[in-house]
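Supplementary notes (optional reading)

For those who missed the lab, this is the record we used. Protein: Pirin family protein. Length: 284 residues.
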Amino acid sequence: MTQLRKVLSVHSGQPASDGAGVKLTRVFGGHGVERFDPFLMLDEFGSQNPDDYIAGFPPHPHRGFETVTYMLEGRMRHEDHLGNVGLLQSGGVQWMTAAKGIIHSEMPEQEQGVMRGFQLWLNLPGRHKLDPAAYRDIQPQDLPRLTTAGGVEAVVIAGRFDDGHSQQAGAVERPHTEPHYFDLHLPAGASVSPRLPAGHRVMLYVYEGSIELPGHPQSIASSRLVRLADEGELRLDSRAGARVLLIAGKPLGEPVVQYGPFVMNSREEIEQALRDFRDDRLTD
């Protein structure tokens, strides 16, 4: 008999603001972050009111992890101390490896209209936290996609989508945390069963519609995050239709010490990051 991944918990995000006052929902992050290892945070932003996003994210530092920004609607310009300049637009992804240190800004390229998307923080193993920083823009037309035999569209940002019938490599691979990051669009009445490695931490974030998970008594409504067991197979059903982020990765099992935009393994490393930033040596 097939063992399915059990639901461990269902979470609701909390209102927050970041940058120069951008309003967002913190889906997870902060206290208890080890439950989501190797992921550190997921923010959802979405508004058609420019006052909620126009101030953007002026220059700020990061060290020790990666950020993945997935834009559903809108335009945001990235600039960093390495000289990278990129335009993140509807359907595109920005994958930034802060590692040893990066100072960057993310500012709106629009003064009206909807800005909507997600930013995911992915931890780096301790031995790679001081590697050189890197940045990559992935334009919408370069993001791999497929449609399953059951009519489910999958945008494959990272990892490899495989449901036993259709396969598609994602835009990004990471050998240490092996992230899988899919945007799944399920029409009404559809099901999908992505294969994921045993031992991977698995989360589902429903951002439109609702889904049903076998063995769970209630539908999972929009704006809910589901944390699943690390073993077993996965099946999602949607009677009404849904759009869902599937986020999975190999836990690092390392200490996580965070101070704002710095994520290291010890308090001493955090204090060093603060000294380096104060002394303009964060990015040396």
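If you only remember one thing from this example: The first helix runs from residue 267 to 278.
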